[in-house]
Task: structure prediction
Amino acid sequence: MDSGYDTKQWAAKTDLGQRLFIYNFTMFGNEFSGWELVNSVITEIEPSVSQKIYIWKKIKAKDEQLVHVSIVERSYWQHAQLQLKNELKHCMRPDLPKGKGKTASLGDVRYIGDLPDSNQVAAVFFSRGNLQITIRSVGQSTVDVVKFAKAMDGRFVKPPTKAEEKSGFAKKIKPAKITAKKEVKTVVVDKLSKFVPRSGWLRAMSDDGELRRDDDTLNCIYQKGGKKEIELMQFGKE
Result:
């Protein structure tokens, strides 16, 4: 039974997620201070849909502390929410609680696997834009994964740091300026695969509308036509 996982209700409360698109998100190994990226793998979960898995290990820990990060990139925000629902349905624990308190603002939709009689959160499942992310504690010693989830979500929605821009890791690309017609797909980026280097990833954010990928093209559909501007930010190095 998955009565608690109402995608219509999720959609009604999603605003930023509609206006956000992430392409080719990649973890480089420097995302979590005090932790080492020890393994990564990419698996195909269905045609043209891949799951990126990263295993992180706490440096100099007396016991084994491991965090498992799974990222699935879909074509747009509603597909990511359907991916989240599917992930929740296959959890060992049915009807996970919604995130609240310290996880209330995480992602567009969020659910948690909290530990009984504890403030620790051993698993977080959330979607943000077109991404579905699952973060779990998988080592011998339980890790509260909230800080990892917040750090990742921040990469998707917050401006890069000045240090990232100064080093060239984050580059603000000239905004895409388009003239859109009401409820008609308008091209934002015609060739995503050529627009971003293989070692990097792209973040697109619009003030309104709905960003969607169709094959290798990023489009936006607007409820109102007119002149529009989409912020484009590239992360990674050549």
